[in-house]
Specification:
This protein has helices at 14-22, 47-56, 84-87, 113-145, 149-166, 178-184, 209-215, 218-222, 234-241, 245-255, 261-273, 297-304, 306-310, 320-325, 330-335, and strands spanning 2-7, 38-43, 60-62, 65-70, 91-98, 195-201, 227-232, 275-280, 285-292, 312-319, 340-342, 352-358. The chain is of the alpha/beta class and 360 residues long. It has 3 domains: 2-47 and 63-109 and 194-273, P-loop containing nucleotide triphosphate hydrolases (Rossmann fold); 120-191, Obg-related GTPase Ych/YyaF, coiled-coil domain (DNA polymerase, domain 1); 294-358, Beta-grasp domain (Ubiquitin-like (UB roll)), CATH 3.10.20.30. Helix 4 packs antiparallel against helix 5 (149-166). The protein is flat, with a radius of gyration of 23 Å. Bound molecules: guanosine-5'-triphosphate and magnesium ion.
Length: 360
């Protein structure tokens, strides 16, 4: 499951977005709350799962999920940087205030999204700088005790990180070889995490996000940040999401939006992270699973259960297109040679429908 941490200045709409994404009208998630942290689970919308469900009529269908965490009322990122839920996150979602509303004061006074992007980036950079410096100190001490090639290598990579950070650049802009990336894994640097900037637009701008970005001078602030952006209008979209489903589409259409905020933010997150989905189907359950692109069949099996990965024998794979073209009939797909038997190392593709054979 994908984990995302919501960051942003106070009152930028983090909780509103969390509610929009987890489709919980009130469900324990309060705006302006002061609880330690708030967690929401977003169900990943995927029309392919809907189609499979219609074909197999299983007892239940289970979408892939994204877990979202907000640390309530933090005001900036620095205070929350040691919190494990952020260190563990696969991605950070920065909720950026672009809406005008005099009833909702902005900490920084005026609404200035470029400044806020820079400020949040600086918070992440400062936190990482602290981590890098502490680690370098430890390495120096250990190096006095005895020489180790691996220690020297680690010191070299962390020095490189420190320089990048001191120059004011987030670590996600650094391109490291796989060996060095592995050396850094244990530190979970926040500025190394993929960043999705969620532009919380004013209602008036929702149909023209490009114009809003231009007026806010944001293009420059985001250049070189290696971040993706996605526009939302959290408050009004949350109101719409609470309407009966048949009304939602009409209201979104009125605003000039083709898709729900949920679908747009999730799609942007998947794009940013390079995530794909595979499916398992049957009479009991049809289910979608998310994995990083280029995941092996054995690791994909592990997403379902570690026993299936351990006892992995073969993956029986058919593509979504092939199976749905034959109305969900495995015998018909077999007859046409569309069901393949793949081994551990097979690289799972988006839309693969997989039946894992494993020994217990
Ligand atoms: N006009 C307008 N108001 C919004 C929008 N998004 C959020 N708000 C309002 O802004 C206020 C703060 O929203 P929250 O979602 O609680 O913001 P937050 O970032 O979680 O705030 P803290 O957790 O206190 O830092 C609430 O009154 C929201 O209704 C928006 O898109 N437009
Ligand atoms: Mg909040």
């Amino acid at each position: 499951m994908l984990r995302a941490g919501l960051i942003g200045l106070p009152s930028t709409g983090k909780t509103t977005l969390l509610r929009l994404l987890s489709q919980s009208g009130d469900g324990g998630v309060e705006t302006g709350g002061r609880a330690e942290s708030q967690v929401g689970v977003a169900r990943v919308p995927d029309p392919r799962l809907d189609r499979l469900t219609a074909l197999f009529k299983p007892k239940r269908h289970v979408p892939a999920t994204v877990e979202l965490t907000e640390l309530a009322g933090q005001g900036g990122a620095r205070a929350l940087l040691d919190v494990t839920s952020f260190r563990d996150a696969d991605a950070l979602l920065h909720v950026l205030r672009m809406f005008n509303d005099d009833r909702v004061p902005h900490v920084a006074g005026t609404i200035d999204p470029s400044r806020d992007v820079r400020q949040m980036e600086d918070e992440l950079i400062l936190a990482d700088l602290g981590v890098a410096e502490r680690r370098l100190e430890r390495i120096r001490q250990d190096q006095k005790k005895g020489k180790s090639r691996e220690l020297d290598e680690e010191a070299r990579v962390i020095e490189q990180c420190r320089t990048t950070l001191e120059d004011g650049h987030p670590l996600r802009t650094l391109s490291l070889d796989p060996e060095d990336t592995k050396r850094l894994r244990g530190f979970s640097f926040l500025s190394a995490k993929p960043l999705l900037v969620v532009l919380n637009l004013d209602e008036a701008d929702v149909a023209d996000p490009a114009g809003a970005i231009e007026r806010a001078g944001l293009a420059d602030a985001l250049t070189g940040a290696a971040a993706e952006t996605v526009p939302v209008c959290a408050k009004i979209e949350l109101e719409i999401a609470q309407l009966p489903p048949e009304d939602c589409a009409a209201f979104l259409d009125d605003l000039g939006l083709v898709d729900s905020g949920l679908a747009r933010v999730i799609r942007a997150s998947y794009r940013l992270l390079g995530y794909i989905s595979f499916f398992t189907v049957g009479e009991d359950e049809c289910r979608a699973w998310s994995i990083p692109r280029a995941t092996s069949a054995q690791n994909a099996a592990g997403e379902i259960h570690s026993d299936i990965a351990r006892g992995f024998i073969r993956a029986e794979v058919v593509s979504y297109d092939a199976l749905t073209a034959r109305d969900g009939s495995y015998p018909a797909c077999r007859e046409h040679g569309e069901v393949r038997l793949e081994g551990k190392e097979y690289e799972v593709r988006d839309g693969d429908i997989i039946n894992f054979r494993f020994a217990t």
